[in-house]
Amino acid sequence: MKTTIDIADSLFQEARRLAHREGTTLRALVEEGLRRLLGERRARAGFQLRSMTFKGEGLAPDLDQGEWDEIRRRSYEGRGG
Known about the structure:
Layout lengths: L8 H14 L3 H20 L22 H8 L6
């Protein structure tokens, strides 16, 4: 497919010189760059943290707007903390 892109002159010149040095085309460089970028983005988009929830229903209603010190104190209650 043919398309037109607008890039900075300095980037174009650098890419053209690199293509010449490597004996390839500007098109091949652009395609390689896009493939790499798309692959990296796909890999990042697929990452998800495992669910670390426990068999509970969140904070107790009386702690919903509580202070962190109180939440921490209650979470360690009876655990020697």
